[in-house]
Amino acid sequence: MAQISVYLNPHASQSLHSFQAVEIKKYFFRQEIRFNSPASVTELIELIQKDREDGVDCIFSIGGDGTAHTIAQNLIGSKTKLLVLPGGTANDFAHEMGTNSNLKKLAHIFHARTTREVDIIKVNGRYLITNGGVGIAHKVAQEVNKLRKEMSLFKSFLKAAGKNAYSIMFIKQIMTAKFELHDIFMDSPDMPLLDKRVSSPLILVNNQPRLAGKFPVAPSTRNDDGKFNVTIFLHHNKLEFIKSATSFLMGQFPEDDKNIIQFETDNLKMMSLDGKDLSFFGDGENFTPAKELDISIVPKGLVVYSNNEDIVLCPSYSLDTIPTIQ
Ligand SMILES: [Mg+2]
Fold first, then answer.
1. What's the 147 CA to ligand 1 centre distance in angstroms?
2. Cα–Cα–Cα angle for 304, 266, 255, nearest 5°?
3. DSSP class of residue 79?
4. Backbone phi, then psi, for 236, in 5-degree steps?
5. Strands 292-305 and 260-265, how do they pair?
6. Position 70 pLDDT exceeds 50
7. Edge-to-edge order in the sheet of strand 285-286
8. Rg, the chain, Cα only
9. Is domain 3-114+306-321 given the CATH code 3.20.20.140 in the classification?
10. Would you identify the CATH topology of the domain 126-299?
């Protein structure tokens, strides 16, 4: 019998996901399962840390990338396994791990014990599980988080728009806000540019191919090879950038765009050259702004249940043996 601790995002609207405790109990009734609905992020962190100390076998995260992000901060390097039950807007991490809202499928993954050890990116001491960066995408994440806190109507918009929510907010941002370039010194052993000073509207740090549910920003990137992807946009005017962004919005990587520089590395330092702090977003959350960003990787830092096809199923297991009660 496994010990399972289930967490609901303290801030997410309950209506954003369809998981019910009674349904979850049906699929996992043989396990020692505890449901937690922390009232604040502080309480969530305290409970997770206690789970880790107690050696809890699995943590179920019901929420979006932000919830998984908060939980992951306190699980890196532990043996406690994470199962992500998608209940957010983008659900990038759940998508990458092949988990969706089908409880029967989730129970299948759990009972088959198909897990993956996933690399985690570290940014100034804070962990990042999916994608992040500086520039216009940070502005979008910041606005979504601000509106989500302030307006209940906006939550309804997020629910209705689903994976299109970030596209809509991105288009709004680019049409209405000033096109801003960030002057940054970038240092990495794998940096292909001779001039390490860049002036860029957007720099992304990617642990997996897709950002915000749809955009294929780093199509060949994997989160288990000990490296992360860096994508630098060198477009210096709004029109060129919109042309490139349109391709991503349509779900395609603009292969022939010479203003996109990409490389894989395990180390990157970024330093602001214009006196302004670098505002970084990661997993849809705002990081603490800083003049310098020190970015590295924690290889295989987190154990996560996954439905990826390259995982070999536990041989003694078959779908018919899922213990459910009707
Ligand atoms: Mg990688």
1. 32
2. 90
3. S
4. -105, 0
5. unpaired
6. yes
7. 260-265, 228-233, 202-206, 131-135, 280-282, 285-286
8. 20
9. no
10. Tumour Suppressor Smad4 (2.60.200)
What separation in Å is there between the alpha carbon of 223 and the centre of ligand 1? 4
326 pLDDT above the threshold of 70:
no
CA of 203 to the centre of ligand 1 (A): 17
Q: Distance from the CA of 130 to the center of ligand 1, in angstroms? A: 10
Contacts of 135 (CB under 8 A, 6+ apart): 180, 182, 200, 201, 202, 203, 233
**pLDDT band with cut points at 50, 70 and 90 for residue 16:** low
Percent of the chain surpassing pLDDT 70: 92
CA 73 – ligand 1 centroid, Å: 19
CA of 264 to the centre of ligand 1 (A): 7
Joined together, the tokens standing for residue 193 give 């540019």
Work out the mean pLDDT of the chain and round it to a whole number: 90
Domain ranges of the chain: 3-114+306-321, 126-299
**Spatial CA neighbour of 142 closest among 40, 66, 42:** 66
Q: How far is the CA of 96 from the centre of ligand 1 (A)?
A: 12
Task: Name the residue with tokens 């288009």.
Answer: 171
pLDDT score of 9 more than 80: no
Measured CA to CA, the distance from residue 51 to residue 3 in angstroms comes to 10
Q: What are 69's two structure tokens? A: 């992000």
The span from the CA of 103 to the CA of 210, in Å, is 24
Residue pLDDT, tens place only, 263-320: 999 999 999 999 999 999 999 999 999 999 999 999 999 999 998 654 444 444 444 4
